[in-house]
Design a protein that fits this description.
Strand content: 15-25%
Distance between the termini: 50 Å
CATH topology: Rossmann fold
Oligomer: single chain
Number of strands: 9
CATH class: Alpha Beta
Helix content: 25-40%
């Protein structure tokens, strides 16, 4: 299948909208990088990886809000608002958009998923799109997985913040298959993750965030791959060093 142009080509920072790079979130490595360079996205799958505190989830949230998704997560049609979320990075973000119209889209974030499930129950949306049951009647992992399998219709932009948090390794591998199906409909994904399983998706772009820089890396270059491989190859040695 021919590769469709992306919905978002790149992100950069409008420096005139930044009061100070000494305060959060502009002091984060992700923001510091955008002050001097843009981040370009793969038309199908881009992964944000790196340690906590480097700004990958903050940047993902800013992209979501700049695109028009609610800051707490959800779609443009189902908006979750339990409290006001300040997103100064979104106000300073410049998105280079493609020419295609997004037919669908979703911003998935684990920390406010409960509120999204409550909004779905309140508005009586068809549960066929969520595995046939209320999301509150499912385990956290089931709800995440069914949302991904049934609610994502394709042909859209999907932003996922650490979706592996509730998924078993088998479900993460099933997620790779679903990614391929949705890519074949022209979908674009930007995913913040710690999962070396998800990062293995073929031809994806992996952007690594560290305290020192933000750069594109190969799967085998990520710390997640290296540490997991080392542990599985020699668990006794690793445990002796740790314990």
């Amino acid at each position: 299948m021919l590769e469709r142009p992306p919905f978002i080509r790149a992100a950069s920072l409008k420096r005139e909208n930044v009061e100070s790079f000494m305060t959060h979130p502009f002091s984060l490595p992700a923001s510091q990088h955008l002050a001097s360079d843009s981040i370009e996205f793969h038309p199908q799958v881009t992964f944000f990886v790196g340690e906590n505190g480097t700004g990958k989830s903050t940047l993902l949230e800013a992209i979501a809000v700049a695109w028009g998704f609610p800051g707490e997560g959800g779609s443009k049609n189902v908006r979750v608002r339990t409290h006001e979320i300040e997103t100064p990075l979104a106000d300073a973000l410049r998105l280079e958009k493609g020419n295609l119209r997004s037919d669908d889209g979703f911003f998935l974030r684990a920390e406010s998923f409960f509120n999204y499930a409550s909004a779905i129950d309140r508005e009586s949306h068809d549960t066929r799109y969520y595995g046939g049951r209320s999301l509150h009647e499912q385990s956290h992992g089931e709800a995440f997985f069914n949302l991904f399998m049934h609610r994502f219709f394709g042909g859209g932009l999907y932003l996922l913040d650490e979706p592996e948090a509730a998924l078993s390794p088998m479900r993460q591998m099933a997620m790779l298959s679903r990614l391929k199906q949705l890519n074949d409909t022209g979908s674009q994904f930007i995913i913040a993750t710690h999962s070396p399983i998800l990062m293995a998706y073929p031809h994806a772009k992996i952007i690594q965030f560290t305290e020192d820089d933000v750069r594109e890396v190969e799967w085998q270059e990520t710390e997640h791959y290296f540490v997991t491989r080392e542990f599985l190859n020699a668990p006794e040695r690793m445990l002796r060093a740790l314990l």
